[in-house]
Amino acid sequence: MTRVTDLAYYPLKSAGGVPVPEAVVEHWSIRHDRRWMLLQDDGRMISAREAPTLLLLRAEHRTHDGALVVRHAAGAVDPLEVSVPDQGEHREGVVWGAAVRGREASPEASAWFEDYLGRTGLHLVWCDDPTFRPVDQRYAEPGDTVTFSDGFPLLLTSTPSLGRLQEWVDESTDRRGEPRVELTMDRFRPSVVVDGGEPLEEQGWDRVRIGEMTFRMAKHCGRCVMTTYDTTSLDRTKEPLRSLGEHNAIDGRLVFGVNLVPEGTGTLRVGDEVTPIQGS
Predict the structure, then answer these.
(1) Nearest to 6 by CA among 188, 169, 148, 146
(2) Average pLDDT, the chain
(3) What pLDDT was estimated at residue 278?
(4) Cβ proximity of 47 and 58 under 8 Å
(5) CB-based contact 114:124 (threshold 8 Å)
(6) Does residue 64 lie within any of the structural domains?
(7) Which residue of 18, 46, 173, 277 is 20 to 30 Å from 33, comparing CA positions?
(8) Are 146 and 135 in contact (CB under 8 A)?
(9) Does residue 95 lie in a domain region?
(10) DSSP state of 179
């Protein structure tokens, strides 16, 4: 039997996730997921693709007042606390070609990130309207929206699939005489991790029931350079992208995990049963 083993949300785009025993799912994401993001002066997003030290930050949503609290995993910088901006200017930006909009946080908060990343012209913004940005209609339905995620409300990965990918990586590195690369699931930044069933079987789902909720499988999740970083040391190798390219390329994408769109709202819990629903 396949069940949920881990749930997480990511308050700040590209920072570390917050593991939780249960998660409220809204139409656009797990509650509080990717509601904060960094934009450049020209509206382009800043992510760990070009600023990998974002992976060393741990961001949390403070429950009693909604503030964002950001800490460095090793305590290398003083923590940052940011109140939700309930007034002030909106700043527009772009995430993978899609227009996004957020309300700008305090200049002091943006300056904290400029100092940390060694960049200028950064702006921390909060997604005050999660209905603003539609999901790519090639893969979703009219009315589906998303916050500041790369494209979809949730991402599901499986432990058996990670095990199969590790086997591919081990074979590849052994064949080339390279040091072993130990994959951890946090490289892939999932919302939902499941265990049970066959490796990669999630890639064949049409819809899935998880606990009390149902989801559409929108598309296979194409992976990028972020997965090549060890999230603790920031050491970078060619894996797992090299092995995905050899064994799991679908429609020109290196695939691991599936993007989900909720068919309603509800609550997910660790331990929930996972049941594929084939067909419409």
Answers:
(1) 188
(2) 96
(3) 79
(4) no
(5) no
(6) yes
(7) 277
(8) yes
(9) yes
(10) P
- The answer to whether residue 73 sits within a structural domain is yes
Phi, psi at 172, each rounded to 5°: -65, -45
Structural domains of the chain, count? 1
Supply the DSSP symbol for 188: G
What is the model's pTM? 0.96
Indicate the residue type of 203.
Q
Residue with tokens 């090639």: 138
Tokens describing residue 192: 């939902």
Closest CA to 29 of 152, 136, 190, 140: 152
CA–CA separation, 122 vs 112, rounded Å?
Answer: 10
Domain of 71, in residue numbers: 34-126
SS3 of 75-134: the string is CCCCCEEECCCCCCCEEEEEECCEEEEEEECCHHHHHHHHHHHCCCCEEEEECCCCCCCE
pLDDT value at residue 280: 56
Largest CA distance in the chain: 57
- For the segment 135-181, what is each residue's pLDDT rounded down to a tens digit? 998 998 999 999 999 999 999 999 999 999 999 999 999 999 999 99
DSSP letters, 246-279, are HH-EETTEEEEEEEEEESS-EEEETT-BEEEE--
Q: 2 with 210: CB under 8 angstroms?
A: no
What's the CA gap between 15 and 247, in Å, rounded? 29
242 falls within a domain = no
Mean pLDDT of 44-53: 96
Residues pairing with 29 in the sheet: none
209 burial level (CB within 10 Å; 0-12, 13-18, 19+): middle
